[in-house]
Amino acid sequence: MHHPQPHISSSAAASAAAAAAAAFDLKPAKRRGSYNCGRCGLPKKGHVCQVINTDSTPTLTSTPTSTPATTTITDASSSAARPPHHPPRQPYSHLRRALSFDDIDIRCDSPELDLDGYDSPFLGTDLDPDNEIVSGGLPAGCLWEVLRRLPPAGLMAAARVCKGWRETTKRLWRAAEELRLRVPPGAQLGFIGSVLQKCPSLVRLSLKMESDVDATMLACIAFSCPNLESMEISTSETAVNRITGDELGRFVADKRCLMSLKMEGCSNLGGFVLSSSSLSTLWLSDLYSLSKTVFNCPNLKEISLEFSRLENDTTDLCTMIDGMGRCCPRLQNIHIASVRLSHAVVLSLTAANLRGLRMLSLVLGSEITDASVAAIASSYSRLELLDLSGSSISDSGIGMICNVFPNTLSRLLLALCPNITSSGIQFATAQLPLLELMDCGMTICDPNSQNSPSDESGNNELPNSFNSKLHLMYQKLIIKHSRLKKLSLWGCSGLDALCLNCPELNDLNLNSCKNLHPERLLLQCPSLQNVHASGCQELLIGAIEGQVSDNLASVENHFPCKRLADGSKRVRAPNFLSQQSSEDDKKRRRIVGRQCCNVLVD
């Protein structure tokens, strides 16, 4: 039987294969779609490049840190005739994240564009991003700046366009420091794991969960993000958070770089022990019946705990506050929302002696009284924010607040406090000169407004006897403040007259102020930008719009005027008599344009 013989012997074939392999290693990879020289940028056709090419190709290894990136060069060839030449990199201390798709409007026209460090699309190569052309004729640096503004779904779609785009998206994923991801219902865990594994440098993660969350998700995050510093998990109405306290405690203990943890839907924790030397911010919401709470976090500075509003909650807040004060001595901001807040809890907080406390928020504590305010004022005299919304304090408590915090307090929130009157609000604005924000929603309420005939029928006319009784309960409010910027009077149905003289006020909330009379409204606030008037009478809305437009017109009419020769009358000066330049006119037009006010009804 005849067998065909090879035309080349096996030894010759082996030597030819070795020679071909050696030639392949020496020949640079061909980049299709590029019609310009990769070294000098001139067209390739009929072009002989004069730029000296190096014989060896070094490999760059960059170590991402919070400081400017340090680059280590390792020569891959031992027989290099000339050392490779690279342009010096300038250090850049403000490294921006790669995926900034949530603030496209800010980043698109940012003048601080940088291609060094993490933002370089050619991290790990010796290519010049200004001269390298990828598929489609775009410079690599331009393509990088376009793709880095896409959301994760768009970035995955861009990777399927061509090879050049795919390589650029890979570099983007590797350079990403922050990722915000929405997990749709029914998404598999492998989907999240595949996305997280693309980002080895990830330090900030935000997940919007529309599917259930459990310990497997935490394990996936812990494995895929070894350098995670900040994690935020928010849940939709249909999603359920099944993470227990033990699982959360193990996650916090393992992530030694974790500095910020924010999580919603924590109704299944039951109890937890959090031990971390790096954690500084902790937000937990929807807590319910915690049997054990241990905070072993010596560097914790901000804590926010929101409990369920169910009456059968069995959490011992006094014990929790006592342990928090002993183990977290550096606390500066405390926010606790619970219907079980009481005067005893406030006493436990004052006994903790947190010297650095600057912001205190105790919300929905109907058993917090003026005695609680006295205890807070005696222990913490440097508060900048105080929120006692939903408490039972009265005007006497406001007086104590004004006596203790006149030089520090800038934000005061007293919404849903039924014992506060307009006199207490006026006293607070008069005695707190640094006040910039004040919330008095649902304080000046009309108890009979829900049963009034105007709500049951469309007729706004009340009987004379009923109207006379309501008139005794209505109150007027006069506020004059030079620094107040935000004022909220939502739901103050017992307010019938309002006078505001606040030159810095830019946001006013008058939602559901149903009994406020249009002829008793006076707004002398030239900086107003937003007025919320949902649920108000149409006449009141018209009065607000009229006064806002009058304020704007008064600003626009500040043009130079000149008195006549006989001194009898002031008239507008002609343009040629005006000493203002065209630049001043442009500045005036820009200022007037910013002062346009929006009356929000819906």
Describe this structure in words.
InterPro entries: F-box-like_dom_sf, F-box_dom, F-box_LRR-repeat, LRR_dom_sf. Among the domains are: 131-175, Monooxygenase; 178-340. The protein is built from 17 helices and 24 strands. A 15-stranded parallel sheet has the order 3-4-5-6-8-10-11-12-13-14-15-17-19-21-24, covered by helices on one side. α3 (140-147) packs across α5, α6 runs parallel beside α7 (215-224) and α10 (343-352) packs parallel to α11. The longest helix is centred in the last third of the chain and has 19 residues, at 538-556. 28% of the residues are buried. Mean pLDDT is 75; it is low at 1-14, 16-28, 53-131, 450-472, 555-559, 571-581 and 589-593.
User: Which parts are unreliable, with pLDDT below 50 for 5 consecutive residues or more?
Assistant: 1-14, 16-28, 53-131, 450-472, 555-559, 571-581, 589-593
Shape verdict: globular
Helical stretch tally: 17
* pLDDT averaged over residues: 75
β-sheet strand percentage: 15-25%
- Main β-sheet, in a few words? 15 strands, parallel
Sheet with most strands: strand arrangement: 3-4-5-6-8-10-11-12-13-14-15-17-19-21-24
Give the tally of β-strands.
Answer: 24
How far is it from the N-terminal to the C-terminal residue, by CA?
94 Å
Region (Disordered): 55-92
Protein name: F-box/LRR-repeat protein 17
InterPro entries: F-box-like_dom_sf, F-box_dom, F-box_LRR-repeat, LRR_dom_sf
Pfam family, one: F-box-like
